[in-house]
Design a protein that fits this description.
It contains 7 helices and 8 strands. The protein has 199 residues and is α+β, with helices and mostly antiparallel strands. The strands form 2 sheets. Strands 1, 4, 5, 6, 7 and 8 form a 6-stranded antiparallel β-sheet that branches. Strand 7 and strand 8 form a beta hairpin. The radius of gyration is 23 Å and the shape is elongated.
Amino acid sequence: MIKYSNRRIKTVFGIIVVMLFITSSFVLLPADYELYLTTDIASLRQSLLLISILLSISITFLFVFNKTQFNKGKWSKVIHIGYIFLLGFGFSYFTSNILTTITLQVNRLTTAKTFTKTFLASTIETTNNEGVTDSKLWVVMHDEIYEVRGRILHKSYDDNVDGLFMNYDDFMKIADKKEFEITLEEGVFGIPFNPKVIE
């Protein structure tokens, strides 16, 4: 009866974890990328990496640990624990998505302050059939949403860039500009969100 109850609890818990992963990865997180700067999400993921791995290993331990297998001998213990660690490490991507989504959702529950930054749009060079080279804003289209690639002035970057998501009206305000002002809100955890083009 106890074993059946434990199996049932694990099954329900497993279904909840899978549903959380699906919701965070395919619904909430893609939407969050439009509300946050790309590099801020990447930095958050990096800061949550160790917690994601430990949480993933802990969850894997609850589901996979087999007392009978563990008690067979020294090498059996080593192999069993190693298997749990490897499997848990492999699932850390899932827990990373869940933790990142939760953090980003909680971060924008309240706004600590609103501030202004200068956005430097990246450009790409194109050459027409006549050999004339032209420089245009680096824009990626997502259905009817414009993602303008670039960097925040005075913000430290490696080789990556940020992407600002905007509708057609906002894009037309900056279509001919390589530098423009945006506003950002600072959330609960100090992560900027909701970038808006200043008219």
